[in-house]
Each structure stands twice: as structure tokens, then as C-alpha cells.
Amino acid sequence: MESAALGSGRLGSLSGLDHALFVYGTLQFPEVLAELLGRIPSLEPAELTGWRAAALPRRIYPGLVVAPEGLTRGAVLSGLTAVEWAIVDAFEDDEYDLRRVRVGDRSGPVWTYVWTAAADPADWQRDRFATEHLAHFASRSARWRNPPYAASAEVERE
Q1: 62 with 70: CB under 8 angstroms?
Q2: In the annotation, is 156 catalytic?
Q3: Of the residues 92, 95, 132, 158, which is catalytic?
Q4: Can you name the residues that pair with 98 across neighbouring β-strands?
């Protein structure tokens, strides 16, 4: 098990490989994960209270925003390698911040990407995304597996 930090920037506070990631948007789809990472890591259905997956202006993916009465359905990804964490982090826009959250009764660390810019008052429509955008979005996600993302993660680990 690695003990060094997984990277710099948003990943700087993660160390080891025992961290899980709560995903609530495009990353909850196995089709996207397969293209993005070249495999489908462990994906366990989960819910996060106190947050909602908001629609974002001019974007087809959501952003997680605080909503005291909210409930966001998604999944917990576990078993990500340092390279995969770097790919996922590069995949996420700069407007996201990586934060630790409490997901159900899980005891290990769970992180998620929280949206920090303006969001729509409407919730993101998972089924609409799946019907209208998933196939094209998934096929485009493979480009994130190529350097410099994967290569820079290898350098960070050494």
C-alpha cells in the first residue's frame, strides 16, 4: 500500500490507496469508466444526504451543491490506483473541489468532487443524460487515459 500523497493540487491530501470516491454524474456509468480508465473499478450504489446533483449552465454533466434537505443518488468507486486518481482529477473541471464526505455508514475515507461555481436551480436528469448523451460522452472519455494525465501520475508516484 502506498503511503505517499497521490499527487499535488486537489489530490495532495490523499495518501495511500484506501480512499473511495463518491460519484453522482457521468462517472457513475460503467460505460464512461470503461473508456476513461480502461476498466470498471468496484462500483457500489450509494446515497449522499445534504447535497444535490445540480444541472449546470451549458453543460451536460452535473455539479454537487449543498442542499440541506437534498439526497443525491450515485455510487462509491473504490480500488482506484494513483494513476486512475490522476486521470479522474484531470477529467474534472477546475470549478470542482475535492472534499471528504460522509456516505452512509462507511468507515473509510470517501471523497467527492463538489461544484464551486454557479449552478442551475434544477436537478441534473440522469435518465435524460443516459438517453441523449451517454454513448457519445463515453466514447469521448477515452482521451483522458492518454498522456499527459497518466504520465504525470506515474511521475507523482515515484
Answers
A1: no
A2: no
A3: 92
A4: 113
